[in-house]
Design brief:
Blueprint: E1 2-6, H1 12-15, E2 22-25, E3 33-36, E4 52-55, H2 65-70, E5 74-76, H3 83-98, H4 101-109, H5 117-124, E6 137-141, H6 145-156, E7 160-164, H7 170-175, E8 181-182, H8 186-192, E9 195-198, H9 212-216, E10 222-226, H10 235-244, E11 247-252, H11 257-260, E12 265-267, H12 276-296, E13 316-323, H13 328-334, E14 343-351, E15 354-361, H14 367-374, E16 379-386
Parallel strand pairs: 1-2, 1-3, 3-4, 4-5, 6-7, 6-9, 7-8, 9-10, 10-11, 11-12
Antiparallel strand pairs: 13-15, 13-16, 14-15
The structure holds nicotinamide-adenine-dinucleotide and (2R)-2-hydroxypentanedioic acid (2HG).
Amino acid sequence: MYTIKLYNNIAQKGLDQFTEAFEVGEHLGDEDAIVVRSANLHDLEYGKNLKAIARAGAGVNNIDLPACSERGIVVFNTPGANANAVKELVFAGLLLASRDIYHGIEWCKTQTDNPNLGKDVEKQKKKYAGNELTGKTLGVIGLGAIGIEVANLAMRFGMNVKGYDPYISVDNAWKMSKWIEHAKDLKELYKDADFVTLHLPLMDSTKNTIDREAISQMKDGVKILNFARGGLVNDDDLLEALDSGKVALYVTDFPSAKLAAHDKVIPIPHLGASTEESEENCAVKAAQEVMDYLQYGNITNSVNMPNVSASMSTPYRVAVFHVNKPKMISRITDAFAQEDANIENLINKSRDQIAYTMLDLDAQPSTDALDKIRGLDGVIRVEVYEA
Ligand SMILES: NC(=O)c1ccc[n+]([C@@H]2O[C@H](COP(=O)([O-])OP(=O)(O)OC[C@H]3O[C@@H](n4cnc5c(N)ncnc54)[C@H](O)[C@@H]3O)[C@@H](O)[C@H]2O)c1
Ligand SMILES: O=C(O)CC[C@@H](O)C(=O)O
Protein backbone atom coordinates (compact mmCIF):
# COMPACT_ATOMS: atom_id res chain seq x y z
CA MET A 1 0.00 0.00 0.00
CA TYR A 2 1.34 3.45 -0.96
CA THR A 3 0.51 6.56 1.07
CA ILE A 4 -0.33 9.81 -0.70
CA LYS A 5 -0.50 12.99 1.37
CA LEU A 6 -2.60 15.86 0.02
CA TYR A 7 -1.87 19.54 0.53
CA ASN A 8 -4.62 21.92 -0.69
CA ASN A 9 -7.89 20.96 -2.29
CA ILE A 10 -7.31 18.37 -4.95
CA ALA A 11 -10.23 17.72 -7.33
CA GLN A 12 -12.16 14.52 -6.61
CA LYS A 13 -11.82 13.36 -10.21
CA GLY A 14 -8.06 13.25 -9.67
CA LEU A 15 -8.37 11.41 -6.36
CA ASP A 16 -10.66 8.88 -8.05
CA GLN A 17 -7.72 7.83 -10.24
CA PHE A 18 -5.94 6.23 -7.30
CA THR A 19 -6.57 2.48 -7.08
CA GLU A 20 -6.96 0.45 -3.89
CA ALA A 21 -3.17 0.15 -3.76
CA PHE A 22 -3.08 3.79 -2.57
CA GLU A 23 -4.20 5.37 0.69
CA VAL A 24 -4.91 9.05 0.08
CA GLY A 25 -5.62 11.81 2.58
CA GLU A 26 -4.62 15.10 4.19
CA HIS A 27 -3.57 13.83 7.57
CA LEU A 28 -1.45 10.81 6.70
CA GLY A 29 2.13 10.39 7.83
CA ASP A 30 5.14 8.57 6.39
CA GLU A 31 3.94 9.35 2.89
CA ASP A 32 5.40 7.92 -0.32
CA ALA A 33 4.24 10.95 -2.29
CA ILE A 34 2.67 14.37 -1.91
CA VAL A 35 0.10 15.99 -4.20
CA VAL A 36 0.06 19.77 -3.82
CA ARG A 37 -1.22 22.92 -5.48
CA SER A 38 0.11 26.28 -4.27
CA ALA A 39 0.99 25.40 -0.63
CA ASN A 40 4.50 26.47 0.23
CA LEU A 41 6.65 23.37 0.76
CA HIS A 42 9.96 25.17 1.18
CA ASP A 43 10.08 24.32 4.87
CA LEU A 44 8.86 20.76 4.42
CA GLU A 45 10.39 18.08 6.63
CA TYR A 46 11.15 15.36 4.13
CA GLY A 47 9.87 12.03 5.46
CA LYS A 48 12.22 9.09 4.98
CA ASN A 49 9.76 7.39 2.61
CA LEU A 50 9.01 10.43 0.46
CA LYS A 51 9.81 9.63 -3.17
CA ALA A 52 7.70 12.05 -5.20
CA ILE A 53 5.92 15.41 -5.09
CA ALA A 54 3.34 16.18 -7.78
CA ARG A 55 2.36 19.79 -8.30
CA ALA A 56 -1.19 19.81 -9.70
CA GLY A 57 -0.44 22.90 -11.77
CA ALA A 58 2.41 24.59 -13.62
CA GLY A 59 4.49 26.79 -11.28
CA VAL A 60 6.88 24.91 -8.97
CA ASN A 61 8.34 27.90 -7.12
CA ASN A 62 6.58 26.60 -3.96
CA ILE A 63 8.89 23.55 -3.91
CA ASP A 64 12.59 23.43 -3.05
CA LEU A 65 13.82 21.66 -6.19
CA PRO A 66 17.54 21.40 -5.28
CA ALA A 67 16.64 19.86 -1.88
CA CYS A 68 14.38 17.33 -3.61
CA SER A 69 17.01 16.44 -6.24
CA GLU A 70 19.61 15.90 -3.54
CA ARG A 71 17.31 13.36 -1.87
CA GLY A 72 16.24 11.65 -5.10
CA ILE A 73 12.69 12.98 -4.73
CA VAL A 74 11.00 13.32 -8.12
CA VAL A 75 9.02 16.54 -8.57
CA PHE A 76 6.30 16.52 -11.22
CA ASN A 77 4.05 19.24 -12.59
CA THR A 78 1.14 19.07 -15.04
CA PRO A 79 2.23 21.09 -18.07
CA GLY A 80 -0.55 22.79 -19.99
CA ALA A 81 -3.34 21.28 -17.86
CA ASN A 82 -4.58 24.68 -16.71
CA ALA A 83 -3.45 26.79 -19.69
CA ASN A 84 -6.92 27.28 -21.15
CA ALA A 85 -8.33 28.46 -17.82
CA VAL A 86 -5.53 30.99 -17.41
CA LYS A 87 -5.82 32.19 -21.02
CA GLU A 88 -9.52 32.89 -20.53
CA LEU A 89 -8.89 34.91 -17.36
CA VAL A 90 -6.08 36.83 -19.05
CA PHE A 91 -8.61 37.90 -21.67
CA ALA A 92 -11.02 38.94 -18.96
CA GLY A 93 -8.07 40.96 -17.60
CA LEU A 94 -7.35 42.51 -20.99
CA LEU A 95 -10.99 43.53 -21.39
CA LEU A 96 -11.07 44.93 -17.85
CA ALA A 97 -7.91 46.85 -18.67
CA SER A 98 -9.24 48.38 -21.90
CA ARG A 99 -12.82 49.18 -20.85
CA ASP A 100 -13.48 50.67 -17.40
CA ILE A 101 -15.99 47.96 -16.54
CA TYR A 102 -14.52 47.59 -13.05
CA HIS A 103 -15.24 51.16 -11.89
CA GLY A 104 -18.52 51.18 -13.80
CA ILE A 105 -19.73 48.16 -11.82
CA GLU A 106 -18.50 49.72 -8.58
CA TRP A 107 -20.59 52.86 -9.33
CA CYS A 108 -23.72 50.85 -10.22
CA LYS A 109 -23.48 49.01 -6.90
CA THR A 110 -23.71 52.34 -5.04
CA GLN A 111 -26.98 53.26 -6.80
CA THR A 112 -29.41 50.87 -5.16
CA ASP A 113 -31.55 53.75 -3.79
CA ASN A 114 -31.55 55.73 -7.03
CA PRO A 115 -35.02 55.65 -8.67
CA ASN A 116 -33.56 57.36 -11.79
CA LEU A 117 -30.78 54.84 -12.30
CA GLY A 118 -31.93 54.05 -15.86
CA LYS A 119 -31.46 57.71 -16.88
CA ASP A 120 -28.38 58.35 -14.74
CA VAL A 121 -26.57 55.43 -16.29
CA GLU A 122 -26.69 57.27 -19.62
CA LYS A 123 -25.20 60.42 -18.05
CA GLN A 124 -22.59 58.54 -16.06
CA LYS A 125 -21.27 56.17 -18.70
CA LYS A 126 -18.92 58.66 -20.33
CA LYS A 127 -16.76 58.33 -17.20
CA TYR A 128 -16.17 54.68 -17.94
CA ALA A 129 -15.53 54.78 -21.68
CA GLY A 130 -12.49 52.90 -22.91
CA ASN A 131 -10.69 51.62 -25.97
CA GLU A 132 -10.84 48.53 -28.11
CA LEU A 133 -8.27 45.76 -28.18
CA THR A 134 -8.29 45.50 -31.97
CA GLY A 135 -5.27 47.27 -33.42
CA LYS A 136 -3.43 47.52 -30.09
CA THR A 137 -0.10 45.80 -29.45
CA LEU A 138 0.27 43.04 -26.89
CA GLY A 139 3.72 42.02 -25.64
CA VAL A 140 3.80 38.45 -24.34
CA ILE A 141 6.76 37.49 -22.14
CA GLY A 142 7.11 33.70 -21.96
CA LEU A 143 5.72 31.62 -24.82
CA GLY A 144 4.95 28.36 -23.03
CA ALA A 145 1.60 26.61 -22.64
CA ILE A 146 -0.20 29.79 -21.50
CA GLY A 147 1.76 32.47 -23.38
CA ILE A 148 1.17 30.73 -26.72
CA GLU A 149 -2.57 30.44 -26.10
CA VAL A 150 -2.79 34.09 -25.07
CA ALA A 151 -0.74 35.21 -28.09
CA ASN A 152 -2.80 33.19 -30.56
CA LEU A 153 -6.12 34.38 -29.14
CA ALA A 154 -4.93 37.99 -29.19
CA MET A 155 -4.28 37.62 -32.92
CA ARG A 156 -7.93 36.57 -33.34
CA PHE A 157 -8.95 39.74 -31.46
CA GLY A 158 -7.14 41.72 -34.17
CA MET A 159 -4.25 42.70 -31.90
CA ASN A 160 -0.63 43.00 -33.02
CA VAL A 161 1.35 40.54 -30.95
CA LYS A 162 5.02 40.52 -30.05
CA GLY A 163 6.44 37.57 -28.14
CA TYR A 164 9.66 37.09 -26.21
CA ASP A 165 10.99 33.74 -25.00
CA PRO A 166 14.69 32.90 -25.31
CA TYR A 167 14.01 29.25 -24.37
CA ILE A 168 10.89 28.53 -26.42
CA SER A 169 10.42 24.81 -27.12
CA VAL A 170 10.20 23.59 -30.70
CA ASP A 171 6.73 22.15 -30.01
CA ASN A 172 5.47 25.51 -28.77
CA ALA A 173 7.07 27.37 -31.67
CA TRP A 174 5.06 25.13 -34.04
CA LYS A 175 1.83 26.04 -32.24
CA MET A 176 2.38 29.77 -32.57
CA SER A 177 0.59 31.84 -35.22
CA LYS A 178 3.08 32.86 -37.91
CA TRP A 179 1.87 36.46 -37.58
CA ILE A 180 3.25 36.81 -34.08
CA GLU A 181 6.34 38.98 -34.15
CA HIS A 182 9.48 37.68 -32.52
CA ALA A 183 11.03 40.21 -30.13
CA LYS A 184 14.74 39.46 -29.82
CA ASP A 185 14.95 41.17 -26.48
CA LEU A 186 12.63 42.74 -23.95
CA LYS A 187 13.51 46.28 -25.00
CA GLU A 188 12.14 45.51 -28.46
CA LEU A 189 8.95 44.11 -26.92
CA TYR A 190 8.46 46.99 -24.49
CA LYS A 191 8.88 49.81 -27.00
CA ASP A 192 5.65 49.08 -28.92
CA ALA A 193 3.46 47.30 -26.38
CA ASP A 194 0.20 48.89 -25.22
CA PHE A 195 -0.22 45.86 -22.95
CA VAL A 196 2.51 43.67 -21.47
CA THR A 197 1.48 40.25 -20.17
CA LEU A 198 3.73 37.93 -18.11
CA HIS A 199 3.76 34.16 -18.67
CA LEU A 200 7.20 33.10 -17.50
CA PRO A 201 8.11 31.11 -14.36
CA LEU A 202 9.34 32.79 -11.17
CA MET A 203 12.98 31.82 -10.57
CA ASP A 204 15.98 33.65 -9.14
CA SER A 205 16.79 34.84 -12.67
CA THR A 206 13.29 36.19 -13.42
CA LYS A 207 12.53 37.85 -10.06
CA ASN A 208 11.71 41.56 -10.57
CA THR A 209 11.60 41.24 -14.37
CA ILE A 210 9.34 44.28 -14.23
CA ASP A 211 11.37 46.88 -12.37
CA ARG A 212 12.08 50.58 -12.78
CA GLU A 213 14.45 50.03 -15.68
CA ALA A 214 12.06 47.74 -17.56
CA ILE A 215 9.19 50.17 -17.01
CA SER A 216 11.29 53.07 -18.32
CA GLN A 217 11.59 51.21 -21.66
CA MET A 218 7.79 50.89 -21.97
CA LYS A 219 5.35 53.24 -23.68
CA ASP A 220 3.75 55.94 -21.53
CA GLY A 221 0.36 54.68 -20.33
CA VAL A 222 1.23 50.99 -20.77
CA LYS A 223 -1.00 48.44 -19.03
CA ILE A 224 0.62 45.42 -17.36
CA LEU A 225 -1.00 42.05 -16.71
CA ASN A 226 0.49 39.54 -14.31
CA PHE A 227 -1.08 36.09 -14.25
CA ALA A 228 2.28 34.38 -13.61
CA ARG A 229 3.70 35.22 -10.14
CA GLY A 230 3.86 38.30 -7.88
CA GLY A 231 7.65 38.13 -7.51
CA LEU A 232 8.13 38.86 -11.21
CA VAL A 233 7.21 42.48 -10.48
CA ASN A 234 8.98 44.91 -8.18
CA ASP A 235 6.05 46.39 -6.25
CA ASP A 236 7.83 49.60 -5.20
CA ASP A 237 8.94 50.40 -8.73
CA LEU A 238 5.49 49.64 -10.10
CA LEU A 239 3.80 51.75 -7.44
CA GLU A 240 5.98 54.71 -8.40
CA ALA A 241 5.08 54.20 -12.08
CA LEU A 242 1.35 53.89 -11.32
CA ASP A 243 1.48 57.11 -9.28
CA SER A 244 3.33 58.99 -12.01
CA GLY A 245 0.97 57.69 -14.72
CA LYS A 246 3.79 55.99 -16.65
CA VAL A 247 1.90 52.73 -16.09
CA ALA A 248 -1.83 53.28 -16.55
CA LEU A 249 -3.06 50.02 -15.01
CA TYR A 250 -1.90 46.77 -13.41
CA VAL A 251 -4.09 43.68 -13.53
CA THR A 252 -2.75 40.99 -11.25
CA ASP A 253 -3.69 37.50 -10.10
CA PHE A 254 -1.15 37.93 -7.27
CA PRO A 255 -2.14 41.07 -5.35
CA SER A 256 0.18 42.33 -2.63
CA ALA A 257 -1.05 44.35 0.34
CA LYS A 258 0.97 47.29 -0.97
CA LEU A 259 -0.85 47.45 -4.31
CA ALA A 260 -4.28 45.85 -3.79
CA ALA A 261 -6.15 49.04 -2.88
CA HIS A 262 -4.53 51.27 -5.51
CA ASP A 263 -7.07 52.81 -7.89
CA LYS A 264 -5.03 51.71 -10.91
CA VAL A 265 -4.73 48.11 -9.78
CA ILE A 266 -7.24 45.37 -10.55
CA PRO A 267 -6.50 42.68 -7.98
CA ILE A 268 -7.73 39.11 -8.52
CA PRO A 269 -7.28 36.46 -5.80
CA HIS A 270 -5.21 33.90 -7.79
CA LEU A 271 -8.16 32.62 -9.84
CA GLY A 272 -6.25 31.84 -13.04
CA ALA A 273 -6.53 28.07 -12.69
CA SER A 274 -9.67 28.03 -10.58
CA THR A 275 -12.11 26.37 -12.93
CA GLU A 276 -13.67 22.98 -12.46
CA GLU A 277 -12.16 21.81 -15.74
CA SER A 278 -8.65 22.97 -14.99
CA GLU A 279 -8.65 21.67 -11.40
CA GLU A 280 -9.76 18.28 -12.70
CA ASN A 281 -7.22 18.21 -15.54
CA CYS A 282 -4.39 19.04 -13.16
CA ALA A 283 -5.46 16.57 -10.46
CA VAL A 284 -5.96 13.70 -12.92
CA LYS A 285 -2.58 14.28 -14.53
CA ALA A 286 -0.81 14.60 -11.16
CA ALA A 287 -2.40 11.38 -9.85
CA GLN A 288 -1.43 9.46 -12.98
CA GLU A 289 2.16 10.70 -12.82
CA VAL A 290 2.48 9.68 -9.16
CA MET A 291 0.94 6.23 -9.68
CA ASP A 292 3.08 5.44 -12.72
CA TYR A 293 6.17 6.45 -10.81
CA LEU A 294 5.46 4.69 -7.51
CA GLN A 295 4.32 1.46 -9.16
CA TYR A 296 6.70 1.22 -12.13
CA GLY A 297 9.44 3.82 -11.72
CA ASN A 298 8.30 5.69 -14.84
CA ILE A 299 8.97 9.43 -14.79
CA THR A 300 6.79 11.74 -16.92
CA ASN A 301 6.67 15.54 -16.66
CA SER A 302 9.31 15.82 -13.97
CA VAL A 303 10.84 19.25 -13.47
CA ASN A 304 13.97 18.04 -11.65
CA MET A 305 14.71 14.48 -12.85
CA PRO A 306 15.24 12.88 -16.26
CA ASN A 307 11.97 11.86 -17.88
CA VAL A 308 12.14 8.10 -18.51
CA SER A 309 9.18 5.89 -19.25
CA ALA A 310 8.90 2.36 -20.63
CA SER A 311 6.44 -0.46 -20.08
CA MET A 312 7.99 -3.16 -17.90
CA SER A 313 9.31 -5.91 -20.15
CA THR A 314 10.17 -8.33 -17.30
CA PRO A 315 8.80 -9.24 -13.84
CA TYR A 316 11.33 -7.05 -11.99
CA ARG A 317 12.70 -3.57 -12.45
CA VAL A 318 15.52 -1.90 -10.52
CA ALA A 319 15.71 1.89 -10.79
CA VAL A 320 18.70 3.89 -9.56
CA PHE A 321 19.10 7.63 -9.10
CA HIS A 322 22.76 8.50 -9.15
CA VAL A 323 25.20 11.29 -9.77
CA ASN A 324 25.77 11.88 -13.47
CA LYS A 325 29.42 10.81 -13.73
CA PRO A 326 31.47 8.25 -15.70
CA LYS A 327 31.46 4.49 -14.94
CA MET A 328 28.23 4.49 -12.93
CA ILE A 329 26.36 2.23 -15.37
CA SER A 330 29.13 -0.38 -15.45
CA ARG A 331 29.34 -0.37 -11.64
CA ILE A 332 25.59 -0.83 -11.36
CA THR A 333 25.47 -3.68 -13.90
CA ASP A 334 28.53 -5.28 -12.23
CA ALA A 335 26.43 -5.75 -9.11
CA PHE A 336 24.43 -8.33 -11.07
CA ALA A 337 27.52 -10.18 -12.39
CA GLN A 338 27.14 -13.07 -9.93
CA GLU A 339 23.34 -13.21 -10.21
CA ASP A 340 21.07 -15.51 -12.13
CA ALA A 341 19.04 -12.46 -13.10
CA ASN A 342 19.56 -11.33 -16.66
CA ILE A 343 19.26 -7.64 -17.62
CA GLU A 344 16.73 -7.65 -20.46
CA ASN A 345 16.47 -3.92 -20.88
CA LEU A 346 18.47 -0.94 -19.64
CA ILE A 347 17.69 2.76 -19.97
CA ASN A 348 19.92 5.54 -18.72
CA LYS A 349 19.11 9.22 -18.97
CA SER A 350 20.63 12.24 -17.30
CA ARG A 351 19.51 15.73 -16.42
CA ASP A 352 22.12 18.19 -15.20
CA GLN A 353 23.94 16.55 -12.28
CA ILE A 354 21.56 13.59 -11.87
CA ALA A 355 21.11 10.39 -13.87
CA TYR A 356 18.45 7.70 -13.72
CA THR A 357 19.20 4.10 -14.69
CA MET A 358 16.34 1.66 -15.09
CA LEU A 359 17.09 -2.06 -15.50
CA ASP A 360 14.44 -4.67 -16.32
CA LEU A 361 15.44 -8.08 -14.94
CA ASP A 362 14.02 -11.51 -15.74
CA ALA A 363 14.45 -12.68 -12.11
CA GLN A 364 14.29 -11.15 -8.64
CA PRO A 365 17.44 -9.20 -7.76
CA SER A 366 19.16 -10.43 -4.58
CA THR A 367 19.47 -8.29 -1.45
CA ASP A 368 23.21 -8.62 -1.87
CA ALA A 369 23.17 -7.07 -5.36
CA LEU A 370 20.87 -4.25 -4.22
CA ASP A 371 23.09 -3.54 -1.21
CA LYS A 372 26.11 -3.36 -3.49
CA ILE A 373 24.37 -0.75 -5.66
CA ARG A 374 23.21 1.23 -2.61
CA GLY A 375 26.81 1.26 -1.38
CA LEU A 376 28.26 2.69 -4.59
CA ASP A 377 29.71 6.17 -4.35
CA GLY A 378 27.31 8.54 -6.16
CA VAL A 379 24.15 6.44 -5.74
CA ILE A 380 21.27 8.51 -4.33
CA ARG A 381 18.35 6.07 -4.19
CA VAL A 382 17.50 2.55 -5.38
CA GLU A 383 13.99 1.15 -5.85
CA VAL A 384 12.72 -2.26 -6.94
CA TYR A 385 9.43 -2.68 -8.83
CA GLU A 386 7.45 -5.84 -9.48
CA ALA A 387 5.21 -6.13 -12.54
N1 LIG B 1 -2.50 32.43 -12.35
C1 LIG B 1 -2.50 31.11 -12.27
O1 LIG B 1 -3.33 30.50 -11.64
C2 LIG B 1 -1.43 30.35 -12.99
C3 LIG B 1 -1.74 29.11 -13.55
C4 LIG B 1 -0.75 28.42 -14.26
C5 LIG B 1 0.53 28.96 -14.35
N2 LIG B 1 0.80 30.15 -13.76
C6 LIG B 1 2.14 30.74 -13.85
O2 LIG B 1 2.43 30.94 -15.22
C7 LIG B 1 3.73 30.45 -15.51
C8 LIG B 1 3.74 29.94 -16.93
O3 LIG B 1 2.90 28.81 -17.04
P1 LIG B 1 2.95 27.87 -18.32
O4 LIG B 1 1.99 26.76 -18.08
O5 LIG B 1 2.83 28.67 -19.56
O6 LIG B 1 4.44 27.30 -18.19
P2 LIG B 1 5.41 26.80 -19.34
O7 LIG B 1 6.53 26.13 -18.65
O8 LIG B 1 4.65 26.06 -20.37
O9 LIG B 1 5.93 28.15 -20.01
C9 LIG B 1 6.86 29.01 -19.45
C10 LIG B 1 7.64 29.65 -20.58
O10 LIG B 1 8.44 30.69 -20.04
C11 LIG B 1 9.65 30.69 -20.77
N3 LIG B 1 10.69 31.41 -20.05
C12 LIG B 1 11.51 30.95 -19.07
N4 LIG B 1 12.35 31.93 -18.68
C13 LIG B 1 12.04 33.01 -19.43
C14 LIG B 1 12.57 34.31 -19.51
N5 LIG B 1 13.57 34.71 -18.71
N6 LIG B 1 12.03 35.18 -20.39
C15 LIG B 1 11.00 34.79 -21.19
N7 LIG B 1 10.48 33.56 -21.19
C16 LIG B 1 10.99 32.68 -20.30
C17 LIG B 1 9.95 29.21 -20.98
O11 LIG B 1 10.86 29.03 -22.03
C18 LIG B 1 8.57 28.66 -21.29
O12 LIG B 1 8.34 28.65 -22.68
C19 LIG B 1 3.97 29.35 -14.46
O13 LIG B 1 5.35 29.19 -14.20
C20 LIG B 1 3.21 29.84 -13.27
O14 LIG B 1 4.05 30.60 -12.44
C21 LIG B 1 -0.15 30.85 -13.10
O1 LIG C 1 -3.52 25.55 -8.05
C1 LIG C 1 -3.92 26.68 -8.34
O2 LIG C 1 -5.04 27.10 -8.08
C2 LIG C 1 -3.03 27.66 -9.07
C3 LIG C 1 -2.01 27.02 -9.93
C4 LIG C 1 -1.15 27.96 -10.70
O3 LIG C 1 -0.66 29.03 -10.00
C5 LIG C 1 -0.06 27.19 -11.39
O4 LIG C 1 1.10 27.61 -11.33
O5 LIG C 1 -0.40 26.18 -12.02
